[in-house]
Every structure is written in C-alpha cells, then in structure tokens.
Design goal:
With 387 residues, the protein is an alpha/beta fold. The protein is built from 19 helices and nine strands. The protein folds into two domains: 27-264 and 311-384, Alpha-Beta Barrel (TIM Barrel), CATH 3.20.20; 265-309, no CATH class. The chain has helices at 2-17, 19-24, 34-41, 56-61, 75-99, 110-118, 138-146, 166-171, 183-195, 206-215, 239-247, 258-261, 265-275, 277-287, 290-300, 302-308, 312-326, 355-362, 367-384, and strands at 27-32, 64-71, 104-106, 122-129, 149-153, 198-200, 221-225, 251-254, 331-333. Helix 3 (34-41) packs across helix 5 (75-99).
C-alpha cells in the first residue's frame, strides 16, 4: 500500500520543484518507442527503470512535459497482426495513464495539451509509426483516429501498397511498381487532414514526401529525422525537402540516433559488433530479437559503447544546421529514445534534455529561440492542424 503513495509524493515534489523552470524552458518530444518495450517485457514506466531511456521519473528530471509515444511493430509482425499489436500498445499506454492519473493526462487536442501543461501534468500523446499498421483498411485508420492518434507516419522502413518508403526508394527503386502515393494514399492524406491528424513524413520516400506536399491542406511534420547534408543516410532529409516542409508551415523534429547524426558512426558500430559477435549471437538467441540484443550488448560494454558514440555537439550541429537553413520556427526535437541502440555522448535518456539548453546558449541562441526548439514549434504546428 505504501508504493503508490511514494510514487505520488515523489512526483508531486518533483513537479513542484520544476514549476518555475517549466514555465521557462520545458521539452516536448515527438517520438519515443518505449511502449514496444513495455508490451514486450511488461515493465512499469511509472517508476525508475535503469534499462529504459524513458520512465516517468526520468521525464520529470529532464523537464519533459509532453511526449508523443510511438505505436509500432516491424514489417514482419505487421504482415499478419500489426493492428492487433498496435491496439496492445495503446492499451498499455492507457493503463499507464490510469495508474498515474493524478500526474499524467492523455491529450488529443491543443486545448487539452494546454490544460495539462497549465496544471503541471505530464501530457501523453500517440503517433502511429508506419502505414502498415492500418493493414490497408480505412476502418482501421478511423479506429486509430478515434483512439486519439495525433500523427500517422506514412511508412516505416517498409513500403505499403499505397506509399513508398525512403529505404525502398533508395535500395529497391528499380523493382518498385510505382513511387510515391497511389489513389488510396491520397485518400489517406485527405482523411488525416479532415480528422486533424498530423501527417508524418519521417521514413517516407522522396516521391512520397513530394506527393504529400502537393495535396495536403495542413502543415506536415517529420517526427524524427535529421539532415542528409550532414549524414547522407536514406532516412535523413535533403535540403530541398527541409525547405519544402518549412514552406508548408511544418516542423522537422531532430532525431538523436547516432547514425543519423554522424556519418562515421556506422563503421565504428560494425567494428564494435564484430568484436563482440559471440556475445551478440548469444543475446540474440536469448532475447529472440537482434535489435534488443544490440541494445543489451551496448549496456554490457558501456566504456566501449561510449567511445563509439558521436559527441553531443553532433546533435547540436544538426539542430543548428536546420535552423540556419529553414528558420527557427521549423525545428524541434523527436529523439527516438528507446528506439535505437546509441545516442550522442551525455545524451543517455530523457533526463538529459536540459543539456541542450546550455549547448544552444553557447551558440548564441536566446531564451525565446530555445523555447521554440524545445516546445514552442510543436505547440504551433499542433494547433495549426486544428484550424
């Protein structure tokens, strides 16, 4: 009987201590994958979890006031039961909120978000990562809308029948029957506009992004993407795409994943994995998932893993590059925590967000400019889709 009381007491004190700070610079993040881990392991993100990048105490420490949680499964699981798996993840978030309803609010519009922030409640939102999650069915799309989905990432790495992904447009271009959106894809964009749900073009192929921008009536977002000019990865956005999203009134939320920030990271990672291949193979057999095995391997060899990571300045450079290219009103943060094995040095989890403030100040950013990056630009685009 004591544990819930202690959780409530600690969160109350933490939010009270951060009240003044929260009125100044706080953080809203547009992409986190912890729900996949919560469903897989049953872990409780209400309390401190050393193995996770996100939990409620870490969010409080980092002054993370609102989080868009990713609803996701990969294309293998998605071939048969993507919608079913998505439902489990949404249910797990609702269970988390119910257990912490004095301190956490589920948010589906800008009015609810402002209320949560005003009352110092942590705001939880959902975005569905990958059009394969609707299994080609408009009624499944409507189900997500009715359950509070606030963005749909049109593709994950895999294409759908109605939209092509960045990975497939890069590596399978010659074998694809088409590029971009087909008629169903255009209907989905129109439905999202009508339902006041943000269209997310992270993971989407260049032709898909082009087609979306040609027909959308609302600002769009890239919920977790970086600059191709800095690290030429297919998942990153080229300069002309960044400018087009800004011209649309949208926002690009910078991903913290090491490979998207630093073009030298992949070589270092592969050498690290090769050095510990036997351990990695054992972990993969034990956990049944190479992705989770890689994450665990990094935790087993922290000193080596830290040396593989890019410096924090690589993340700051990406943010600064985008601001200079497309303007201060069009850049935010979408870290992808709990969705990758490596992030920049010092940026280990959501509790470390305040480091961004100091680093941006060193580059001459004002408080008002930092507010826009950390939360203001999300608030603007989130409200804009409701107009």
């Amino acid at each position: 009987m004591l544990r819930p009381f202690l959780i409530a007491f600690v969160l109350h004190i933490s939010f009270s201590c951060l009240a003044q700070q929260a009125d100044d610079i706080y953080f809203i993040d547009t992409h986190n994958d912890v729900l996949s881990k919560q469903v897989k392991s049953g872990v409780d993100i209400s309390v401190s979890q050393p193995g996770l990048d996100f939990d409620l105490p870490k969010a409080t420490k980092g002054n993370l006031r609102a989080q868009m949680f990713s609803i996701w499964c990969d294309e293998v699981l998605g071939k048969e039961q993507a919608f079913k798996h998505a439902t489990k993840e949404i249910d797990s978030l609702q269970s988390f909120i119910k257990r912490n309803q004095e301190h956490v609010a589920f948010v589906t519009n800008s009015k609810e978000l402002k209320k949560a922030l005003r009352h110092k409640k942590f705001a939880a939102l959902i975005g569905v990562e990958g059009g394969h999650m609707i299994e080609e069915r408009m009624d499944y799309l409507d189900s997500f809308i009715n359950r509070g989905m606030k963005y749909l990432t049109l593709t994950w790495n895999n294409s759908t029948t109605w939209a092509t992904s960045a990975r497939d447009e890069t590596f399978k271009k010659d074998s694809l029957s088409r590029l971009g959106l087909n008629e169903m894809g255009k209907q989905i964009v129109a439905r999202l506009n009508e339902a006041k749900v943000m269209i997310d073009v992270s993971h989407a192929g260049e032709k898909t992004v082009e087609d979306v921008l040609a027909i959308t009536t609302k600002p769009i977002i890239a919920s977790h993407s970086c600059a191709y000019a800095i690290s030429p990865h297919p998942r990153n956005l080229k300069d002309y795409q960044l400018k087009a999203i800004a011209a649309n009134g949208g926002v690009v939320f910078v991903n913290f994943y090491s490979e998207f920030l630093d073009s030298t990271y992949l070589g270092k990672k592969n050498l690290f994995l090769a050095t510990h291949k036997a351990t990695l193979d054992s972990l993969t057999t034990q956990l049944g998932d190479p992705f989770f095995a890689t994450i665990q391997l990094y935790k087993l060899f922290p000193a080596e893993a830290e040396a593989v990571k890019p410096p924090l300045q690589a993340l700051i450079h990406n943010i600064d590059y985008m601001v200079k290219l497309i303007g201060i009103d069009h850049v935010g943060i979408g870290a992808d925590f709990d969705g990758a094995e490596s992030f920049p040095q010092q940026m280990n989890d959501v509790s470390n967000y305040p480091l961004l403030i100091d680093e941006l100040r060193k580059l001459g950013y004002s408080t008002e400019q930092i507010k826009k990056i950390c939360h203001g630009n999300f608030l603007r685009v989130f409200a804009a889709i409701e107009k």
